[in-house]
Amino acid sequence: MEKQYMGQYLPEIDEAKIRRMVDIRERYLNGELSLEEGRKLLAEQVGKICSYEIAYAEQQLKALEDDECRKEDIQSMLDLYKDIWDTSRPALPKYHPIGCYYEENDVMRKHLLAVEDLVQYPVIRNQWYELYDELAKFKIHFSRKQNQLYSLLEKKGFDRPTNTMWLLDDFIRDEIRDFRRLLEEGKEEEFIAKQATLVADIRDLMEKEERVLYPTALAMISSAEFEDMKVGDREIGFAWIETPEVDSPRTVTQQPQAEGFTQELVALLAKHGLGGASADQKLEVTTGRLTLEQINLIFKHLPVDLSYVDENELVCFYSDTEHRVFPRSKNVIGRDVKNCHPRTSVHIVEEIIDKFRSGEADTVDFWINKPGFFVYIHYTAVRDAQGRFRGILEMMQNCTHIRALEGSRTLLVWNKDEHGETKQTTEEVDLAEEPKEEAAEGGVALDLKTMKVTGETRLKDLLATCPALKAELPKINSSFKMLNTPLARVMIPKATVAIMSERSGMPLDDLIAAIEAFIRK
Fold first, then answer.
1. Among 210, 24, 246, CA closest to 100
2. What's the Cα-to-Cα distance from 98 to each of 86, 102, 214, 422, rounded to whole Å?
3. Which of 65, 309, 329, 489 is most buried, judging by how many CB atoms fall within 10 Å of its CB?
């Protein structure tokens, strides 16, 4: 795929101005110019600059070392460009994708102030655990950037965020995880000593975002593209901030896209004499005949997630299942697969591609094994009848519920539906051997008059008190659709309201209020 030129998506760029700016900055960073001398030359030779001009200049620089983005403090750039750089925050409509990033940063700044306040006092672990639970939600912010914003920018030739800022995202995510572990291991002095580093690193990241990344995105991405981006943003979720109350994007957007794709493909087939111009036209597949609608439905209902990367290493397809393990958005389509991973793991991707392409290997698998969560990932080299390499198929499945199965089930048993009614055929069911569903999910019914929902309240107790809540929860937050899948048998006994809040990205107080309102109603 031909690499895009970043400049064609920006207002007119003065290349000579950019060269002067880059030259002065490099001389300043190399110690050839003092801060005062650098500022004076910029004022004389460059004049006022916009954030997207800085981003354009950065794109022209040589590739950075893996950790250079982390080492380069944004403050040095702010100091050098102080007199000529417009760093004002743009006015954006509510729920604008870039506006949501700004809002999340504002909440994070409040959490960082809480960190700075708490370090002054003797360590009370529960206070720190609660605060770090909030800090950890920033990974949702990172996930949207990496899957949505970076993807769209790199398609327009601006791949520096993918190649450098992603490293910083992951570095801070790991800092939050690792510093919490110090507290869990009882290393309180070391934990407290790390807090200033964490605060400085996160603030530096947010400055990079707000001074360069977001203004450049606003200059490069059209209003229509931002509207389209909202669908994937809602799929991935938000950290702390309000999520727009809209219909499921699968209902609103995905179906028309599928129909449009079907119509376009049928028309293309008709053009080459390979079928009529009807969406009902059945196509000859290897072992049967299917319409395009049926093909799309099969992919949508597979019990596993599939992704396909072609021989040019471009992502061409992923299955849009309700149970998707990790977030995906349509912006990934057409993306270089290496840009779908942080640079620290790109070498693994390249090794898999090389071995599959050469024929040295045909499959490789990985798995993620954490308490209450087991995911199996399998990669297969795709080859045509002549043995030529045509790409890679990724299969991913959450096998948590499979690993939890015990004994045997050889007779027909139907799970309860959302109304608590059991559906089964007239075939005999051996109740002595097959435990009822409520044995796995059953909780203790609470007193409605005295009950107060807290973060520690168990989901199974709530469902025992109000069975209809199971059908209501997906309406409160779409993430709770998982409760209507087989995984519910594993999830419900372990989940608390606090865990539900963390997994869905919904603020704990809002979730509690919604649950209490429904139960009392």
1. 210
2. 18, 7, 6, 47
3. 309
Q: Nearest 5°: CA angle at 341, between 335 and 345?
A: 140
Number of Cβ within a 10 Å radius of residue 60? 13
Beta carbons within 8 Å of 431's beta carbon, 6+ residues apart: none
Which residue from 109, 107, 85, 89 is spatially nearest to 98, judged by alpha carbons? Answer: 89
Does residue 173 contact residue 138 with C-beta atoms inside 8 Å? Answer: yes
Nearest to 123 by CA among 50, 182, 165: 182
Measured CA distances, 345 to 12, 35, 141, 262, 480 (Å):
36, 37, 20, 36, 31
Question: How far is residue 147 from each of residues 50, 98, 239, 331, 340, measured CA to CA in Å?
Answer: 26, 14, 15, 7, 7
| Tokens 């900055």 belong to residue | 25
Q: Tell me the CA end-to-end span of the chain in Å, nearest whole number.
A: 57
What six digits make up the tokens of 266?
Answer: 């049928």
User: Amino acid identity of 222?
Assistant: S
Rg (C-alpha) for the chain, rounded Å, is: 26
Q: How far is CA 230 from the centre of its chain?
A: 13
- Given a contact cutoff of 8 angstroms between Cβ atoms, the answer to whether 212 and 58 are in contact is yes
Residue in the block written with tokens 């050839």:
32
- In this predicted model, what pLDDT tens digit does every residue of 201-241 receive, in sequence order? 999 999 999 999 999 999 999 999 999 999 889 888 999 99
Report the C-alpha gap between 188 and 442 in whole angstroms. Answer: 39
Query: pLDDT for 38-87, tens place per residue?
Result: 999 999 999 999 999 989 988 876 544 444 454 456 677 778 888 899 88
Q: Is 495 helix (H, G, I), strand (E, B) or coil?
A: coil
- What is the three-class DSSP state of 341? coil
